[in-house]
């Protein structure tokens, strides 16, 4: 089986993982936190952070030859489930219909103490 490691030129490189891994038919996108292209956490609340995570994933999906229309599963990790409604407001606006399958959990701790991380699995 062919395995292709993909890094988006729009996202900062991470020495410990690839932005995505592509196998025949599927793309597994690493979790994206609310960081800008220089790796700094963007200012704002969980709504702004949700949009940044989704925008980062857009860059990764594009680099892998896919798009949100082909996403089949999204996993969302929140620092606090108290942010669930606010996150959903932006998530619903950002993703095309019909929405992919999704899991959302509260995580004990996220990188750089951010309030959200989002990962996705997409078809090629």
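Sequence proposed for the structure above (124 residues):
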């Amino acid at each position: 089986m062919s395995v292709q490691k993909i890094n988006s030129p729009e996202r900062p490189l991470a020495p410990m993982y690839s932005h995505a891994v592509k196998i025949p038919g599927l793309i597994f996108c690493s979790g994206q936190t609310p960081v800008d292209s220089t790796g700094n956490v963007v200012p704002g609340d969980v709504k702004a952070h949700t949009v940044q995570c989704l925008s980062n994933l857009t860059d990764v999906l594009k680099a892998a030859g896919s798009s949100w229309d082909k996403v089949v599963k999204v996993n969302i990790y929140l620092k606090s489930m108290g942010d669930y409604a606010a996150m959903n407001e932006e998530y619903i606006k950002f993703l095309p219909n019909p929405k992919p399958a999704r899991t959302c959990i509260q995580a004990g701790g996220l990188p750089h103490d951010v309030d959200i991380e989002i990962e996705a699995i997409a078809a090629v």
